[in-house]
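quick q for whoever's on today - can somebody do inverse folding on this one?? i tried earlier but teh output was garbage lol. tokens:
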């Protein structure tokens, strides 16, 4: 899975878990939503590195 796909998957997970937490009050969903946000942050940093490397390779 590419970093781009990882970001999308984590965001979809975040949306689902956040909805469960907000709408239904499921406390465990809060932890899963926070985990998904951390995965997004990590994947974003990696993707930024990839984009920079690709840009430098172009010349």
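ok took a stab at it. sequence:
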């Amino acid at each position: 899975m590419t970093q781009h796909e990882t970001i999308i998957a984590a965001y979809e997970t975040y949306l689902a878990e956040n909805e469960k937490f907000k709408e239904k009050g499921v406390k465990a969903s809060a932890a899963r939503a926070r985990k998904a946000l951390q995965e997004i942050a990590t994947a974003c940093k990696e993707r930024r590195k990839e984009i920079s490397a690709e840009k430098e390779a172009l010349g």
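fwiw The radius of gyration is 15 Å. also The chain has two helices and no strands. so keep that in mind when u check it
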